[in-house]
Amino acid sequence: MSSGHILIVEDEPKLALLLKDYLARELYQVSCLHDGDGVLDFVREQGPDLILLDLMLPGKDGMSICRELRQFSNVPVIMTTARVEEIDRLLGLELGADDYICKPYSPREVVARVKTVLRRFGPAGSVPPDRNKVQVNEEAYEVRLGDKLLELTPVEFRLFLFLYQHPAQVFSRSQLMDKLYSDGRIVTDRTVDSHVKNLRRKLSAADPEQELIRSIYGVGYRYDP
Predict the structure, then answer these.
(1) Model pTM?
(2) Structural domain tally of the chain?
(3) Residue 54 sits in a domain of what CATH number?
């Protein structure tokens, strides 16, 4: 029985084949593409459960693919790159990538990352289980987690709603500032951190077994169904 369908997008055929062999040993179904031009059509037609996406590709590059992919799909993406500059890592995550691995890497590390991400998100197309438990009433500014009503401030509600509507995407503090305040006020990173801390505390009190909002060190926050 297959553990899931993995799409490898890698322009080095030997490396792609090596990764394919390691993943196949773990009973994953594996497909490979060696340029970026056919990735979006493949995702629409085949619906893979996870994509290993190289940053530098012939044709459409990994950044462009990730940006366009997030317009119609939440399939988990692990970016692989030999470019280790911090801006590349930041951009990759802000565009909707769920993890990144820097080359050179161990195939065993890639397999471990794939397993971790798939455990977090489940098969493509499935509804994350906690989203069945979360009820959001935008008109009443109410959020219920299971049968518990969260006592949120208006800012906390807007913060939760924005992250909830963009599951698995990482947002920097500056991006969240723009969403929290519409009057142009100047706030600091610590202000955002304080709101996130309070929101996480209230979510944890309602359901201690789930960590719905995660911190991504050095980048920002994401809603993690």
Answers:
(1) 0.56
(2) 2
(3) 3.40.50.2300
